[in-house]
Design a protein that fits this description.
Helix content: over 70%
Shape: globular
Number of helices: 15
Largest sheet: none
Number of domains: 1
Oligomer: single chain
Length: about 300
């Protein structure tokens, strides 16, 4: 029986395991909050669909092995993230209060003013606002580049890198649930949270942010995930790191300019990177070091 169970679970890759663990933990929160949450049926139904989807993709890869299906098997959680993030706002509703007032007091004590309110007021030019909104939009571009580039260039590294990337996202989301903060764009009154108008990227980001929720400002996952990816690039290919350095720096400033985050959120996001990289590597090596991807040759790491 143990041998049969081991054979069954060996078909689930490390990314399946960490995703299933996150679904399990948040399902426990739903159960814990029974009677305090509203409309829980939708969330249980979505989780059922996710379990079925993961089982189905494992079965499909088993029946029709191939590179494209193998890559899809490792990347599907990127779609799940678009559901998990706004759900943190729903799940933290049973925990009283938000951190924003305390963060604002800390920022005023550190700087004498609120940088997220003053930054856009000091730089109201349309071209600067457009540059900042492009920087914020580059968060989606760097994630897309990460998964495509590693699977093409370093296929044997890709699974571990994406595992650490997703593990880090799930840690951020759990923090958002238990220690909620809304961010300046939601917490500040209307005059202070206004952002100067720009052009194309300003309008694009305003449309994207319509799907945002008042959750997850502290620590900044935009900063943590971006600079975690930049660490990957620095470790594996310095040329790629240099290509993405300017967008990453623009994104760092943009999170404050467009009032998505306080400066304290940015600092905390940076500080999250080393423990996330260390713990993600340790967990992967401890539990999944023997996991192999058949049919692919080792890729040579080039550091330029």
């Amino acid at each position: 029986m143990d041998g049969n169970l081991r054979k069954i679970f060996s078909k689930y890759n490390p990314i399946d395991c960490i995703t299933l663990l996150y679904i399990f933990l948040t399902t426990l929160l739903l159960i814990f909050g029974t009677g305090r949450y509203e409309n829980t049926a939708e969330h249980y139904l979505v989780r059922s669909g996710m379990f079925i989807f993961i089982w189905l993709i494992v079965r499909l890869e088993e029946m029709f092995p191939g590179r494209m299906l193998r890559i899809l098997h490792q990347l599907y959680p990127l779609l799940f993230l678009s559901y998990f993030y706004p759900e943190t706002c729903y799940l933290h509703s049973i925990f009283p209060g938000v951190l924003d007032a305390g963060i604002i007091r800390l920022e005023v004590a550190l700087f004498g003013f609120l940088p997220s309110e003053a930054f856009s007021r000091c730089c109201p030019q349309a071209w600067f606002s457009e540059l900042m909104h492009f920087g914020y939009f580059s968060f989606y571009l760097i994630i897309l580049f990460l998964v495509v580039w590693y699977y093409i260039k370093y296929p044997l590294l890709a699974g571990k890198k994406v595992f650490i990337f997703l593990f880090s996202f799930y840690i951020f989301y759990l923090i958002f649930i238990f220690f909620p903060s809304e961010g300046p764009q939601y917490f500040l009154p209307v005059p202070e949270k206004k952002v100067p108008a720009g052009c194309f990227f300003t309008g694009l980001m305003q449309k994207i942010l319509l799907f945002d929720r008042p959750t997850g400002a502290f620590p900044s996952s935009h900063i943590g995930i971006t600079w975690l990816i930049m660490f990957f690039f620095f470790s594996d290919n310095r040329k790629i790191f240099c290509w993405w350095l300017v967008p990453a720096v623009l994104l760092t400033f943009a999170t404050v300019y467009i009032k998505a985050h306080y400066v304290v959120d940015v600092i905390a996001g940076f500080l999250m990177v080393p423990p996330l990289v260390w713990s993600g590597n340790k967990i992967y090596d401890l539990f999944f070091a023997t996991h192999t991807v058949p049919g692919e040759e080792p890729a040579m790491i080039e550091t330029l």
